[in-house]
Amino acid sequence: MCLITDGDVAGVIHTAQPESTGIDIYLGIGGAPEGVLAAAALRCIGGQMQCRLILDTSEKRERAAKMGVADPRMIYEIEDMVKGDCLFAATGVTTGSLLTGVKFRKDVIETETVVMRSVTGTVRYIKADHRQLEKFHLD
Length: 139
Description:
Number of helices: 5
Strand content: 15-25%
Shape: globular
Number of strands: 6
Distance between the termini: 52 Å
Low-confidence stretches: none
Radius of gyration: 18 Å
């Protein structure tokens, strides 16, 4: 068992790669935006997930009602969170289990990005060198 304090979207993505990560299930309490991001990534790579809102304060219950949540105990399937063709893209800021973080070199900034598409199941990893041009200015 591994406890994840940050990077829960990467942890969820790893469940769809059990042969390379050894992770086949993820259980957690994350934020709703992170849940939708994780659902989009899983739609692209063939994973499944279920979740529900935890409305443990009156403020959260009121906010959910204002947003149109009719059944606060509803269990959401992946298709409820992400419909149709979707894309998922993430660029590493700090190095984690999924992506390398930004590296600053003398004249180059290096980044790593993953891009996924649900219709094709394509997953691309992009390593990019961003040249620092001193003469390039935006006015």
